[in-house]
Design goal:
Shape: globular
Strand order of the largest sheet: 9-10-11
Number of strands: 11
Helix content: 40-55%
Low-confidence stretches: 1-6, 79-129
Distance between the termini: 62 Å
Radius of gyration: 32 Å
């Protein structure tokens, strides 16, 4: 066990008498959540204990007992009903929550003093006044005087029960979200968070007019909220007003944030570079995707930020500045930085923003990276050590069939032909067919059963899904961090495992064409693996 990891002791909760791990409050997780949601303390109307009570005036153990043994008590509270025995007799430990029925005509001297005291203070439940409808409901016919964003900080965990009453349309929408979440196989916790978030919105704003996206995202600062799922649910029904500050994809917003952090003049020059490589410059060029723009920007953004401290424009950058930047970023970082800077200054020279390209003629010594093998003890029992079905399938696809991390996450369910044992992998160079062995077919069948059991109605087209992507109406692939976490628990890296698999195959054959057919490689990577596996078989120098 790591030294920094804290493990709470296991035992019996003194509040609900349940067994399990105890939290920092020396009670179970459910009672801790009850305590955080209801911070105030008052006498319980059922057992008179001064503790955390709900809006009905009951503590959590009494609420559990009443719901199971006497549901009618909430409608007609009266003394002489079941009480929690564990709280009246200190030091008593039971296997489960037990109850003791008190006759209504018993005398105080015939029962323990704690029970008699509890029976004497039991009073009828305080009447709960019905909450009125919010006076701030948005009218569809009302115009907007000025743009403003709502602040939800006035709502804390204890005031959720004091929300205004829902209108019939809002109540129907909350019920529709709950049914939709259940049909998608969403868990109890995420489903409750989503319905709670939607109820907060509709209680104050109503369901008569669309809701601003910024107002929904402002709720993300509160604990236990599901703003992304609520946004998707409302957007599918045309009830979201998009936020103009969040237009475009997440990659575009990241690019704009990085550029805005630069000085004004340099930021304008970088924006001009973005327009050029996106095919909007003075000359026609092939349009690069925003993912390439972000990769280039991540490489030279720290260098531009450092230059911005002593220059006002990229026109002042000289060849010496380029070489100094490459000297400060040796090795692989320099080989990534030079092409990015070359793309930047070539675009600015094309647009006649600068007069000469300072990167022209700047070169770096060639650096060849050969794959290295992984020790055998780390690979022994790799699939057996993977815990879940999705982890076993992911490890098999990368460790046996040498699929890349991105293409593993992007596998589609329709590309799997399990009866024939084939899997089509879509690549820019074409479709590569993977022939599944018996182990891979068995692991794939186990994962399909698990996928159908957890999310039978999911519309995500990808083969691998998680509890987040399965209920996402956009149908995204799983995050690459999920694959990193799977291999991180095994002490490995997915890219290293893939390289080791190809390198192991290259040890058994010196034919690069075989590697190209089995793993779908191109000629140059196949030759690199063959040379790394057989260094003695280098190219022959002609006489």
């Amino acid at each position: 066990m790591p030294g920094d990891e804290r493990r709470w002791p296991a035992g019996q909760c003194p509040v609900c008498l349940g067994w399990g791990p105890l939290t920092q409050y020396t009670c179970c997780a459910a009672c801790s959540k009850w305590r955080r949601a209801l911070p105030g303390q008052a006498p319980c109307l059922h057992c008179s204990r001064v503790t955390h009570v709900d809006r009905d005036g009951l503590c959590r153990p009494c609420l559990m007992t009443v719901r199971v043994e006497d549901p009618g008590w909430l409608a007609n509270p009266r003394p002489g009903r079941p009480l929690q025995l564990g709280f009246l007799l200190p030091g008593l430990r039971l296997s489960r929550a037990s109850s003791l029925t008190l006759p209504a005509n018993c005398k105080d001297k015939q029962v323990p003093s704690g029970i008699a005291a509890c029976r004497r203070v039991i009073q009828p439940r305080r009447p709960q006044l019905a909450q009125p409808v919010s006076p701030h409901l948005v009218d569809p016919a009302q115009g907007v005087l000025f743009d403003a964003r709502r602040d939800w900080s006035f709502l804390n965990a204890g005031e959720l029960d004091q929300l205004p009453a829902l209108t019939p349309a809002a109540s129907a929408l909350v019920g529709e979200l709950d049914r939709h979440a259940r049909s998608c196989g969403m868990g109890t916790g995420p489903r409750n968070n989503a319905t709670k978030t939607l109820r907060i919105l509709l209680a104050w704003l109503g369901a008569g007019a669309p809701v601003h996206e910024a107002d929904v995202r402002a709720l993300s600062s509160r604990p236990s909220t599901a703003t992304r799922r609520v946004l998707q649910f409302l957007d599918d029904r045309g009830m979201i007003i998009p936020d103009p500050d969040r237009q475009g994809t997440s990659v575009e917003r990241t690019i704009n944030q990085h550029i805005d952090a630069l000085p004004d003049v340099i930021a304008g020059e970088v924006r001009q570079w973005v327009r050029v490589i996106r095919g909007q410059g003075r000359r026609a060029h092939q349009e690069l995707p925003f993912s390439s723009v972000r990769s280039y920007l991540n490489c030279f953004h720290p260098v531009l930020a450092e230059w911005g401290q002593h220059v006002t424009s990229l026109r002042e950058i000289t060849r010496d500045d380029i070489q100094e930047a490459l000297r400060q970023h040796p090795g692989a970082r320099a080989h990534n930085l030079l092409p990015a800077l070359r793309s930047l200054f070539r675009a600015l020279k094309q647009e006649k923003i600068i007069f000469r390209d300072p990167t022209r003629g700047v070169t770096l010594p060639s650096m060849r990276r050969l794959p290295a093998p992984i020790p055998t003890d780390l690979l022994r029992g790799l699939i057996d050590r993977a815990g879940t079905p999705i982890a076993k399938v992911t490890v098999a696809m990368i460790a046996i069939h040498a699929l890349g991390k991105k293409e593993t996450a992007s596998l589609l369910l329709e590309d799997l032909d399990l009866p024939r044992g084939q899997l089509a992998v879509r690549r820019p160079t074409g479709t590569h067919t993977v022939y599944l062995d018996e182990l891979s077919r068995a692991l794939m069948a186990d994962w399909l059963r698990e996928r159908h059991r957890c999310w039978p109605l999911t519309g995500n087209p990808h083969l691998l899904v998680t509890r987040h992507t399965a209920v996402d109406t956009a149908g995204p692939p799983i995050a690459l961090t999920v694959l990193d976490a799977i291999f991180g628990e095994l002490g490995l890296n997915p890219s290293q495992v893939r390289q080791d698999r190809i390198l192991d195959e290259a040890r058994h054959t010196a034919d690069p064409v075989h590697l190209m057919r089995v793993f779908g490689l191109t000629a140059k990577p196949a030759m690199n693996y063959v040379q790394a596996a057989h260094p003695d078989r280098g190219p022959t120098v002609p006489r």
